[in-house]
Design a protein that fits this description.
Helices cover 48% and strands 15% of the residues. It is an alpha/beta fold and 397 residues long. α4 packs parallel to α5. The strands form two sheets. A six-stranded parallel beta sheet has the order 2-1-3-4-5-11, with helices on both faces. Strands 7-6-8-9-10-12 form a six-stranded mixed beta sheet, with helices on both faces.
């Protein structure tokens, strides 16, 4: 039996495309095998398209509609568009597997509303259709709650991470400085969020106390390289790839030549990290206390140290802290420390002893008891449990 020949037009440099590829591989390993020919989007030329045509593929999966779709449509074979960058276009042999951009925007708005924010902003890319869809859904949900929203758009020419000066020249910093504070700011993607975080750092704007930042995509490598680490809406691009491969197979076998042209996949979850982990705080003294606690998370600080960072007496700060945050100062110190410890257990390969020493403990004994008191399990068991969850998260059912 001749193997189906599938042309993949994807980009290994893109985290979303890598997950799409993994989903395709998982499907093919179960129901294939397939013969592949892969072209990177960055290498697309007239010559490479003609070379792909001469290979005579039975189907095509492409993740960027701007990379030769008009030419691929002439191949007269089934084509799957995974995670489009443009408005949908009608072709008889093209079907879409997309993410629900409206649900993504709504999820971000709900998150910030529940956090108690009264000011909201969205930062996106002017050139990308999905960015506008996410912004529109975010705006509708915010306006439905009778709040206004501030918007800033980059053009594609502004997306050079290695040139932060260009962001300043195009007004991002000015826009951020003029925003009311505190504010919940959603971006269209993790890349866009990284630009916002860089601009905040350059202007010494406190994240998340003044500007809480939420990205989209949950590119873990990028999110954890950001400072502070980036919160993000997680999208299941692996499932996009898996379902796209499943749909392509049915089209090749003539089992699904008609019917629905678009299959939408919803967002998975919110992955909350440092950039958006606090509620909106409109009391400046309480906000300063929270900033101090987070800035000294690895030190064995006491309640009085936090009081000294504000202009209030111990009793006054305690009463206002309790009212705004919902618990006492000591509880906040403990919670922040334990969550930071948990992130180190998950995100680093540091030994438990080294992590204990980072937080001022001489050994694992007292450190383990401290952690177990809050999390209900030892640091070692917590690390093992998280790794098991992470390994199983993307397995298609």
């Amino acid at each position: 039996m001749t193997l189906p020949k599938v042309l993949l037009v994807l980009d290994n440099a893109s985290a979303s495309d890598r997950f799409i590829l993994l989903g395709i591989q998982k499907y093919a390993s179960l129901y294939g095998p397939w013969a592949y020919n892969k072209i990177a989007q960055s290498d697309m030329t007239r010559i490479s398209i003609e070379a792909a045509r001469s290979w005579a593929p039975d189907g095509v999966i492409v993740s960027n509609e701007q990379c030769g779709l008009d030419e691929f449509a002439k191949f007269d074979v089934p084509i799957i568009i995974a995670a489009r960058n443009e408005a949908k276009r009608e072709y008889q042999n093209v079907k879409y597997v997309d993410v629900r951009n409206d649900l993504i925007g709504e999820m971000g708005a709900e998150f910030f509303l529940k956090k108690g924010y009264k000011s909201f902003a969205f930062c996106g890319f002017e050139d990308y259709y999905w960015s506008h869809e996410r912004e529109e859904a975010f705006r509708k949900r915010i306006e439905a709650s009778h709040y206004n929203m501030h918007t800033y758009y980059h053009r594609r020419s502004q997306q050079k991470v290695e040139n932060p000066e260009k962001n300043r020249q195009n007004g991002l910093i000015t826009w951020l400085m003029d925003l009311p504070k505190p504010i919940g700011l959603m971006t269209c993607s993790d890349i866009c969020a990284s630009y916002v975080l860089d601009a905040c750092r350059l202007q010494k704007l406190h994240v998340p106390e003044e500007i809480a930042v939420l990205g989209v995509g949950n590119d873990e490598m990028l999110a954890k390289l950001c400072n502070p680490q980036l919160s993000s809406v997680e999208l299941d691009f692996q499932q996009v790839g898996y379902h796209g491969a499943e749909l392509l197979q049915s089209m090749i076998m003539k089992a699904n030549g008609s019917g629905q042209n678009v299959t939408d996949m919803g967002p998975m979850a919110l992955r909350i990290r440092r950039s958006a982990e606090v509620n909106a705080i409109y009391d400046k003294d309480v906000a300063n206390a929270l900033k101090y606690i987070r800035a000294h998370v690895c030190e064995l600080i006491q309640v009085q140290d936090v009081v000294n960072a504000t202009t209030l007496s111990r009793r006054a700060l305690y009463e206002r802290f309790q009212k705004v945050v919902g618990h006492g100062i000591y509880t906040e110190i403990r919670n922040v420390r334990v969550e930071y410890i948990a992130s180190m257990l998950i995100d680093t390969g540091a030994s438990i002893l080294d992590i204990a020493r980072t937080f001022g403990y001489c050994g694992e004994g007292n450190f383990g008891r401290y952690f177990r008191c809050i999390k209900g399990m030892s640091p070692r068991k917590y690390r093992s449990l998280y790794h098991q969850i992470r390994l199983s998260r993307y397995n298609p059912q």
